[in-house]
């Protein structure tokens, strides 16, 4: 058994004889305090947005163009050191709002 405590985070990659089956499982156990929100940065290159973070951010999703924008990927886990690039495929991505699970849980930091 893995020693997992409140506040721990784990990424597990399963490896098969044929190679790595890139399926990550995350476990985040929150204490009684609201979680500390990640600081998510956005670098823009036209319709391409590259997101990076200082701490794990779960269920990251983007909204723009009054909720009408469609992105190439939405609702993903963002990890420090692993930037994610998405493309706005429909709508305008000028005023993008980035949210995560922490926002819905009332994360305010400590």
In short:
By secondary structure, this protein is mainly β. Helices cover 4% and strands 47% of the residues.
What is the H/E order? EEEEEEEEEH
Q: Rg, please?
A: 16 Å
Q: What structural category do the secondary elements indicate?
A: mainly beta
Largest β-sheet summary: 4 strands, antiparallel
Extended strand count? 9
Describe what you observe in this structure:
β3 and β4 (48-53) form a beta hairpin. It is globular, with a radius of gyration of 16 Å. It is mainly beta and 110 residues long. The strands form 3 sheets. A 4-stranded antiparallel β-sheet has the order 3-4-8-6, with no helix packed on it. Strands 7-5-9 form a 3-stranded antiparallel β-sheet. A two-stranded antiparallel ribbon has the order 1-2. It has 1 helix and 9 strands; from the N terminus they run βββββββββα.
Features:
four-stranded antiparallel beta sheet; single chain; three-stranded antiparallel beta sheet; 47% strand; 1 helix
SSE topology sketch:
Elements: E1 9-16, E2 19-28, E3 40-45, E4 48-53, E5 57-63, E6 70-71, E7 76-78, E8 84-90, E9 97-99, H1 101-104
Antiparallel strand pairs: 1-2, 3-4, 4-8, 5-7, 5-9, 6-8
